[in-house]
Model the fold of this input.
Amino acid sequence: MDEHKENIDGNGANVTVPSPKEEEKTNPCSRICPDGESASPVAPSQPNGDFSHPVYKEIALANGHINRMSKDELRLKLSELKLDTRGVKDVMKKRLKSHYKKQKLLQSAAEGGATDTYYDYICVVDFEATCEEDNPSDFLHEIIEFPMVLINTHTLQIVDSFQAYVKPELNPQLSDFCTNLTGIKQNVVDEAEPFPDVLRQVVAWLQERELGTKYKYAILTDGAWDMSKFLNIQCRISRIKYPQFAKKWINIRKSYGNFYKVPRTQTKLSTMLEKLGMKYEGRPHCGLDDSRNIAKIAIRMLQDGCQVRVNERIHGGQLLSVPSSAPVEGAPAPHNPRSRD
Done:
């Protein structure tokens, strides 16, 4: 729901968005080590944030050599290493630097240094919601599609997915604009369950996969809107408390922008895919298809060496950044919705 999200955010959405400088301070991918690359959370055999270890000199020398390589040389080297050769020059440089950095840090870690801990799973969510062509500032968006795509961070594969449509309560009749944008027809939402019942299905799906109990996981979204706006509004409409497991998430736009060093204007879904040498697969603004394409980007970023971390949260209805100094924690085990009453 990329274009629609951009549109509603400019039409009076009650969301506090951090400035780019604040994002650099709080995003875990924005910490810079002396060689100009994103730093690992823990330096090998060194206190957190200390880059005096000799391995960083080796990484800096490798980065200098990579910076002087042409696009053809980069593609050839990536091919030799059996790495992905797609993407623009800057993406290929980042991929090659991350490969050498990861190899050096793993080698150093094997000699006694610390290693990084990833989430076991990342759960991608991209809601579709009711909308008008020109949303008034007080328009209350209701979730009409709840998709989830599960990434195994160890195998770097999409391993499962969930999709359910939702019956809107306040505006049960979808606008023509909404139907044309999302492809969701009126009879589909008419026959769907109300949001609290769908949320129970989501909780059961997460519980069956032992997320938050046996396995550490995190929610990932394309922007801040899904959780801070759509889910926040929906919970108020449905008179239920905001679910604890969705209070923190990974905003992939922030992670992508900081990792590949590009401005926020280049972090739309279609642009990220293009820069990484991939194409959108499926129907745009189908929540499940959007989620699958977002997952492809997340997998590529993990392959390229990005330390994907929770970077946003909601508190008291307000959107806040999660500082990079915060301990790395998975989302809590999901529980069925509780009434606000």
Remarks:
- The chain is about 40% helix and 15% strand.
- The longest strand covers residues 143-152.
- The first helix runs from residue 2 to 9.
- The chain has a mean pLDDT of 84.
